[in-house]
Design brief:
It comes from Gordonia rhizosphera NBRC 16068. This is Putative ABC transporter ATP-binding protein. Keywords: Amino-acid transport, ATP-binding, Nucleotide-binding, Transport. Belongs to the ABC transporter superfamily. The structure is a single chain. The protein is α/β, with parallel strands linked by helices. The chain has nine helices and ten strands. The strands form two sheets. It has a six-stranded mixed beta sheet with strand order 6-7-8-3-9-10, sandwiched between helices. The longest helix is centred in the last third of the chain and has 16 residues. The site of adenosine-5'-triphosphate (ATP) has 12 residues, from strand 2 and helix 1.
């Protein structure tokens, strides 16, 4: 086991104005691993993602990424260091073409441009066919692929995928999971936020369950059985 985890989060808290949304969350993301972050609506999953990726400030606690304390780093800097957050929703520039969307993702990252574009098309061949299409006219699933391609093409160390499968047809959900599985094989670590737990647990090594901004349970994903999920998430989300 590697001594230093890729991501080391300790006692992390965050708030929106006077409302505290995260209460002292601690967890490690080992190198080459995946964590499923589960919890009911409003539990703080997206807030955890936003705090780690620098979109909102931590009010207490620390985040170490690859041995560096990034707690006060800007979102841009954190992204350049290799931690990419895919926020809930599609996150593409609707009026630009597929190719322009891909090129823009490269503007802030020092990677070989043609290699990165080739990597994007390897992950999602359909995007190569649609490279000149305006992104806003892609299907929801294709937009999700484009969003994921923009993240994976820059060879990130960690991807935080927030509700990637939300609203997608089952076949598209398969495509998204296949791409994330391929990314893991390339050494990308993943923090997967999901309201629907079953697939996330199959995908991940570890599992965190949040409840009202607190860490309610954490452990190996295979130990997050039906009874536990039912207790924290209710029947609708344990599927
Ligand atoms: N921009 C914001 N301003 C104020 N409060 C917010 C904001 N975003 C989230 N919150 C509040 O913070 C708490 C945690 O929300 P968060 O979006 O992190 O939950 P979540 O677990 O991701 O939920 P969901 O599954 O519904 O996306 C909730 O009480 C929510 O109302």
């Amino acid at each position: 086991m590697s001594a230093t985890p890729l991501l080391h989060v300790r006692a992390l808290s965050a708030r929106y104005g006077s409302a505290q949304a995260l209460f002292g969350i601690s967890f490690d993301l080992p190198t080459n691993s995946a964590i499923a972050v589960l919890g009911p609506n409003g539990a703080g999953k997206s807030t955890l993602a936003r705090t780690i990726s620098g979109l909102i400030p931590a009010t207490a606690g620390t985040i170490e990424f690859n041995g560096t304390n990034i707690t006060r780093h800007s979102a841009d800097k954190i992204r350049r260091e290799g931690l990419i957050h895919l926020p809930e929703g599609r996150g593409v520039f609707a009026r630009l073409t597929v190719m322009e969307n891909l090129r823009l993702a490269l503007a802030v990252d020092k990677v070989d441009r043609s290699e990165a574009i080739a990597r994007a098309f390897d992950y999602f061949p359909v995007l190569a066919k649609r490279r000149k299409q305006i992104a806003g006219t892609l299907s929801g699933g294709e937009q999700q692929m484009l969003s994921l391609a923009r993240a994976l093409m820059v060879n990130p160390k960690v991807v935080i995928a927030d509700e990637m499968s939300l609203g997608l047809a089952p076949k598209m959900v398969d495509t998204v999971f296949d791409a994330l599985t391929a990314a893991r094989q390339e050494g990308v670590s993943v923090i997967m936020i999901e309201q629907f737990a079953g697939r996330a647990i199959q995908f991940a090594d570890h599992c965190l369950i949040l409840q009202r901004g607190n860490l309610a349970w954490s452990g190996p994903a295979h130990k997050a059985g039906d009874e536990l999920l039912h207790r924290y998430l209710g029947s609708a989300t344990a599927a």
